[in-house]
Write a sequence for this structure.
């Protein structure tokens, strides 16, 4: 079926690559730029194959992409491919990402590409130093990042002078389930997708069967950091967003907003290009 899709795209001057049945980046771009009559032809093809259950309306949107992506299995990520996507990325996490994918229900190429793109952005390329929130802020940045907790630039400077622990306890203390005086620091952001707060550490720990309340620093260990990212991805239903090609919605689910969206989109397309 994939070869037939490429042939339809090629006949309509939307694809100029080989008819190899591999839905790579050029094929994806063709799908993204289809006029209505081409989209209808591909929807009909997928319907005839029993893959697509929707209307033949020429609107190749979420339902159409979900049907198509369900047939494209998640590939393994190699160190060589990761370096092409993000040249400075730490490759030691790949063994855990690949091994745990099916366990957490990550089964399609779209899911793997978008998962990878998001955690690369969240962790600055799996940088070990960024697996715990460090609170090394300049006064101006601290005030801008946490304006609710600092009355002025002078107040931010005063807290910075007391050290990173004091900053964490001021901005996270008394919320996110933090009740003890040092909870803000102990349960600061951690993992490949920054889990923050005693409550979230507790929920995560129970889900992945790790004691993160008594041993919160375990969240920065590669295997547990990867588990934490998969749990977060799963709990936010990001696999569905990925299969529907809803990159923006997925980013909002993970980030709470759209910080890093442009980078996620860039790494998603790079991953799609190299992961075949």
């Amino acid at each position: 079926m994939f070869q037939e899709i490429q042939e339809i795209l090629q006949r309509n001057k939307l694809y100029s690559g080989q008819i190899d049945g591999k839905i790579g980046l050029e094929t994806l771009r063709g799908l993204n730029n289809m006029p209505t009559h081409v989209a209808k032809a591909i929807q009909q093809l997928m319907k005839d194959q029993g893959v697509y259950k929707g209307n033949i309306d020429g609107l190749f949107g979420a339902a159409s992409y979900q049907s198509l992506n369900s047939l494209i299995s998640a590939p393994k990520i190699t160190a060589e491919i990761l370096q092409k996507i993000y040249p400075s990325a730490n490759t030691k996490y790949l063994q855990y990402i690949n091994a745990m994918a099916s366990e957490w229900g990550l089964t399609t190429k779209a899911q793997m590409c978008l998962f990878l793109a998001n955690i690369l952005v969240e962790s600055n390329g799996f940088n070990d130093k960024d697996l715990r929130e460090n609170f090394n802020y300049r006064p101006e940045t601290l005030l801008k990042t946490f304006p609710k907790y600092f009355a002025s630039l002078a107040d931010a400077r005063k807290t910075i002078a007391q050290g990173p622990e004091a900053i964490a306890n001021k901005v996270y203390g008394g919320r996110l389930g933090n009740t003890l005086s040092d909870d803000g620091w102990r349960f600061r952001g951690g993992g490949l997708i920054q889990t923050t707060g005693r409550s979230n550490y507790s929920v995560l720990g129970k889900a992945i069967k790790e004691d993160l309340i008594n041993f919160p620093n375990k969240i920065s260990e590669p295997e547990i950091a990867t588990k934490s990212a998969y749990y977060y991805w799963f709990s936010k239903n990001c696999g569905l967003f990925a299969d529907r090609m809803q990159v923006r919605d997925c980013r909002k689910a993970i980030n709470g907003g759209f910080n890093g969206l442009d980078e996620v989109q860039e790494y998603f397309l790079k991953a799609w290009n190299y992961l075949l």
User: Anything to note?
Assistant: The chain has a mean pLDDT of 96. Residues 109-123 form the longest helix (15 residues). The CA atoms of residues 236 and 254 lie 7 Å apart. The chain has two domains: 2-69, 75-133+189-276.
